Amino acid sequence: MSANSQDMRFKAGEMKGQADVKKDQIADKATNAAQSCKDSMQNAGEQVKNKAQGAADTMKDAMGMNKK
Question: Rounded mean pLDDT of the chain?
Answer without folding.
Answer: 93
